[in-house]
Amino acid sequence: MIFAFLLLSALIITEYTAQPTQQHIADQHTIIDSKQKDKTPAKVQIVSMKSATVQPPEKQFEFITLTPILFDFDQSKLHTPSKKSLDKVVALISATRGVERLFIEGNTDHIGGVNYNDQLSDLRATSVKKYLLEKGVPETLFAESGYGEMRPIDEYWTRNGKQRNRHVSLHMLVSK
After folding, report:
1. CATH number assigned to the domain comprising residue 102
2. Rounded to two decimals, what is the model's pTM?
3. 154, 161 contact by CB (below 8 A)
4. Which phi and psi (to 5°) does residue 73 adopt?
5. DSSP-derived secondary structure letter, 59
């Protein structure tokens, strides 16, 4: 066992007394001390260099869907009940360790043109984001997008279904 250790040590650290060429220095990965005036190789020589990639342990995440924030028809303005819900979201973010991201997804009902609904859903997501920023939620947490009428959460042929589809979905990504 001691013999193997000594042999390994001899392979890693060797003394070099001859003057090598520049090519020899590059090939052997010789360490040159930049403080030496004549740039001769130092006494330590690296025999082998191997790169290793160390992968961190995989994080585990929890995806939490929060109560949707509802809007009136053709509006992106937040109402008092919506603000109260968002205040609870702010408190939850403050109380939860490991919040990595807050996804803000604006949505509309199917009434109106596709382009108009896409713009309206963006405005709804932006109004939620602005409110949360005003309440002190860091901007680095936000991932904001508008989906228009493409992601309904309820039926579109009833009044109540249309109302629920005019919303912003909030999802928290929390590392465990």
Report:
1. 3.30.1330.60
2. 0.66
3. yes
4. -55, 130
5. P
Q: How would DSSP label each residue in 67-117?
A: PPEE--TT--PPPHHHHHHHHHHHHHHHH-TTEEEEEEEE---S-S-HHHH
Residue 129 is which amino acid?
K
Element (H, E) at 9: helix 2-12
- Of the listed ranges 29-33, 58-62, 93-97, 101-105, the least confidently predicted one is 29-33
Q: Which domain holds residue 38?
A: 1-52
97 and 121 in contact (C-beta within 8 Å)?
Answer: no
Q: What is the pLDDT of residues 128-169, one digit of tens each?
A: 999 999 999 999 999 999 999 999 888 989 999 999 999 999
Same domain, 91 and 45: no
* Rg over CA atoms, the chain: 31
Residue in this structure with the two tokens 């160390």, named with its chain if needed: 54
| Residue owning tokens 């579109």 | 156
Same domain? For 37 and 85 the reply is no
C-beta of residue 100 within 8 angstroms of C-beta of residue 61: yes
Tokens of 74: 């053709």
Beta-carbon-side half-sphere exposure of residue 148 (alpha carbons within 13 Å): 12
> In the numeric block, which tokens belong to residue 100?
């990595």
CA separation for the pair 26, 23 (Å, rounded): 5
Least Cα distance to 73 among 4, 164, 146 occurs for: 164
